[in-house]
Design goal:
CATH class: Mainly Beta
Structural class: alpha+beta
Number of domains: 1
Shape: globular
Order of helices and strands: HHEEEEEEHEE
Distance between the termini: 22 Å
CATH superfamily: Jelly Rolls
Length: 112
């Protein structure tokens, strides 16, 4: 089993994939490095990707009208997010920011 497969296989709705399917999935995942405090996802991009955290921690935030940041969630290595926004479009938009250097896998809505 390849290194990235463990994280992919830990995602409940992907856990049933065969090694061949995991290999196919690995090829469509766009992996990017984000330095600490860099924005990974802006609110308007919420329904366009599913994200997998390969390394690091990220915070999901919304900014209030008066400019205050409200943390909605923190995601760590092995966590995934964004799949519901792609499926139903009803998830509230949020911005995702790297809390430390992070390696993120992204699956486009089309590939999903």
């Amino acid at each position: 089993m390849k290194p990235g497969y463990g994280i992919i296989k830990s995602i409940p709705f992907l856990s049933c994939l065969s090694d061949t399917e995991l290999s196919d999935m690995e090829r469509i995942i766009i992996k990017k490095h984000f330095p600490k405090n860099e924005i990974i996802l802006m609110e308007e991009d919420t329904p366009n990707y599913m994200y997998i955290v390969y390394a690091g921690n990220v915070k999901v935030v919304q900014t209030s009208l008066d400019g205050r940041e409200q943390i909605l969630a923190i995601h760590r290595k092995g966590d995934f997010f964004g799949e519901m926004a792609m499926l139903d479009g009803k998830t509230s938009p949020a911005t995702v920011i790297a809390m430390e250097d992070a390696e993120i896998g992204m699956i486009t809505k089309h590939d999903f």
